[in-house]
Amino acid sequence: SMIPDWRGALVAAAKEVKPSGYVHAVDFGDLKGLWPVAEKTLRAWLGLFHVRPRDELLASLQAGDRGSLAILPGRYAFVLKAKPAAILRIAGQ
To answer: What is the predicted pLDDT for the residue at 29?
Structure first.
């Protein structure tokens, strides 16, 4: 949410981890499970700090083989644990 090029950040992380290791990522989700007023308010508050939840990131993680993905209540945030090869697939590498 704070790194505009999330794909590049994931690729850089994957390249620094041994193939047998894992990349862990925690970020804001797409917020779509929140009450609409709460979603709008949270997005506005995060925007004050130049933080923008990347809806396309969570969508990419949910599609295909990506490792272990836990989505927190309200789709507020997610926790990802994945092998470097899976990260590269997620990032389109």
So the answer is: 94
